[in-house]
Write a structure and sequence with these properties.
474 residues; Spore Coat Polysaccharide Biosynthesis Protein SpsA, Chain A; Rossmann fold
C-alpha cells in the first residue's frame, strides 16, 4: 500500500446502536491501512450518540484516532457526509455505513486501484462476482438495477452498482463538488458529477451481507423517488456541480477536444525535449506532451496535483509537483535553468503579478529556451465569464510584447486564433452577463471547428486567444 496515502474512513450513523461496536471493531482491524476514522451521528434517537461517546473513549489512545461529529437533527446520509467531510484530514476517503452489510476486509481491494495509479475514484460493486454475497429480495435487486441504468444514462458510465455504500474518493475531489442531496440522493448525484470531472472510475468486487427490513434496512421506495429526482437535478445542472462557475467553464471547455488539439498543434513545432507545464490542471494538454525526454507537470491546486500524480505514477520520465507562479519566490532552486520549454495554457491571466510570473518562467528556462503561452485576448472582451474564471485581465498585443521584453523574453511568434468564438464570448460575458458557457453553445462551436482551422491559415490580428513564443535571451 502506498505509504503516502492517508486514508480516512467516513461513517454516517443513524440509529445503529446495536451494530456500532462491531462495525467499529471491524474497521479497526484494518487500522494498518488507515489514517483516521470520522463518524457522524445524524441526530439518532436510539442511543447511538451515547454509544459513539463510549467508542471515542475506547479508541482515544489508538494510533488511528476516532473523531465523532454530533448533529442535532436527522437530515440524511448526504448531509451527514458533508458534515463529516469538514473534519477529515486524510487525503483519501472511504465511505462506510454503520450497519454490518459491508465488511472492512474489502478496504485493501478498494484502495488498490488508487494506490497503483490506475484510478481516481473506486466503487465497490456487489454485482461483479468473484466473492460470496448473501441472497436477498428479488425486487430490491430489480429496483437497484433499474436505478443504476438510469444513472448510467445520465452520466454516460457503465457502472454495475451506483447505490453501493463503498465509494472511495480523494478528499480534495469530494470537497470540489457542490453536492446538494441531503439523503440517499447523494449516491447518484456524486456519480453524475464525478463523471463530468473526467475521473478514471474503477469498480472492484466486494462482499455483501444485506439486511432485510425486519433486520433494520432503511432504504425504501421513498429513497428511490428522491434518488431519481437527484439524478434529474444533477443532470440538468449542466456542470454546475463545481465549487465555482469558473471551474465548470474550464471543464466544459475541456470537452472541446478538437479545439484543444488544434491549440496544441500551434505550439508543437516550438517544443523542446525537456518540458515543464505550469498550470497543468487535469491534464488536458499534458497528454500531448508525453513523447518528450523529460516532462514535469505542475499546478498550484493540490487536488489537480493529486490527480496528476495518480495518473502518471509509474511513468519514469514524468514528474508531478505543486508549483505556484503567484509565489515566484518559492520556485525550487533545482528547477532553475533546466528546461527547453515552459508550456502555459490559460494561466498567466489568473496571476495578479504576471510580471513576476513571467520572470519565474524565464528562470525555469535554459538560455535559448522558449516560453509557449496561450492567453485570453482583447481586454475589450473582459466580462462575467472572465470574472468567474478568476481572470485579472485579458491581453492585447502591445501590452504582452512589453511584458515579455521586461521579463527578458524575446518574442519570436505572436498570433491570434479563433475569431469564430469571439461573438459568443462577447454575448455571454458582456451582454447576457452569464457565469457559465451553455453546453449547447459548445456543441455549436465544436461543429464550426473546420472554420477555426481554415481561418488560422491567415495572420488575422483578432481572436479569442493570443499565442506567444518567447525565447530566453543570453
Amino acid at each position: 500500500m502506498d505509504s503516502v496515502m492517508k486514508v480516512t474512513v467516513l461513517m454516517p450513523v443513524y440509529n445503529e446502536r446495536w451494530t456500532l461496536r462491531e462495525i467499529m471493531r471491524r474497521v479497526y482491524e484494518q487500522s494498518a491501512l488507515l489514517h483516521e476514522v470520522v463518524a457522524v451521528d445524524d441526530g439518532s434517537t436510539d442511543g447511538s450518540a451515547a454509544r459513539l461517546k463510549e467508542l471515542e473513549a475506547r479508541y482515544a489512545a489508538h494510533k488511528v484516532p476516532l473523531r465523532v461529529v454530533y448533529k442535532g437533527k436527522n437530515e440524511g446520509k448526504g448531509a451527514a457526509l458533508k458534515a463529516g467531510l469538514a473534519a477529515v484530514t486524510g487525503d483519501v476517503v472511504i465511505i462506510q455505513d454503520a450497519d454490518l452489510e459491508y465488511n472492512p476486509k474489502d478496504y485493501a481491494t478498494l484502495l488498490a486501484p488508487l494506490a497503483d495509479g490506475r484510478a481516481d475514484v473506486v466503487y465497490g460493486s456487489r454485482f461483479l462476482g468473484g466473492t460470496a454475497r448473501r441472497v436477498l429480495l428479488f425486487w430490491h435487486s430489480v429496483a437497484n438495477q433499474i436505478l443504476t441504468v438510469f444513472c448510467n444514462l445520465f452520466s454516460d458510465l457503465n457502472l454495475t452498482d451506483v447505490w453501493t455504500c463503498y465509494k472511495v474518493f480523494p478528499a480534495a475531489m469530494l470537497r470540489r463538488l457542490d453536492l446538494f442531496s441531503r439523503g440517499f440522493g447523494f449516491e447518484p448525484e456524486v456519480t453524475i458529477k464525478i463523471s463530468r470531472l473526467g475521473c478514471r472510475i474503477y469498480e472492484v468486487p466486494i462482499g455483501y451481507e444485506g439486511r432485510t427490513e425486519e433486520e433494520g434496512k432503511k432504504i425504501g421506495f421513498k429513497d428511490a423517488v428522491t434518488g431519481t429526482l437527484a439524478m434529474l437535478r444533477a443532470w440538468l445542472s449542466s456542470g454546475e456541480g463545481h465549487r465555482t462557475h469558473g471551474e465548470a467553464t474550464l471543464r466544459i471547455m475541456a470537452k472541446a477536444g478538437r479545439y484543444n488539439k488544434f491549440l496544441f498543434e500551434r505550439i508543437e513545432p516550438y517544443l523542446g525535449r525537456e518540458v515543464i507545464e505550469v498550470g497543468a490542471g487535469t491534464g488536458n494538454i499534458s497528454r500531448n506532451l508525453l513523447d518528450r525526454d523529460r516532462l514535469v507537470l505542475s499546478d498550484a491546486d493540490a487536488g489537480y496535483v493529486e490527480m496528476l500524480q495518480r495518473t502518471y505514477k509509474d511513468w519514469g520520465y514524468v514528474k508531478t509537483m505543486a508549483l505556484d507562479l503567484a509565489r515566484p519566490q518559492a520556485l525550487p532552486a533545482e528547477l532553475a535553468g533546466n528546461f527547453d520549454s515552459v508550456v502555459s495554457f490559460q494561466v498567466l491571466e489568473h496571476i495578479q503579478d504576471d510580471a513576476a510570473a513571467l520572470d519565474a518562467m524565464r528562470r525555469l528556462l535554459k538560455t535559448g529556451g522558449r516560453a509557449l503561452l496561450m492567453l485570453p485576448a482583447h481586454q475589450s472582451l473582459f466580462g462575467t465569464l472572465d470574472r468567474e474564471l478568476g481572470h485579472f485581465r485579458r491581453y492585447d498585443e502591445a501590452g504582452l510584447r512589453a511584458k515579455l521584453a521586461a521579463a527578458g523574453l524575446e518574442v519570436e511568434v505572436l498570433r491570434f486564433f479563433n475569431p469564430v468564438a469571439v461573438p459568443g464570448w462577447w454575448l455571454n460575458g458582456r451582454v447576457l452577463r452569464r457565469r457559465l458557457i451553455p453546453d449547447f453553445q459548445l456543441a455549436v462551436f465544436e461543429s464550426l471547428h473546420f472554420l477555426v482551422r481554415w481561418l488560422a491559415r491567415w495572420d488575422i490580428r483578432f481572436g479569442l486567444v493570443i499565442f506567444a513564443v518567447a525565447r530566453k535571451k543570453a
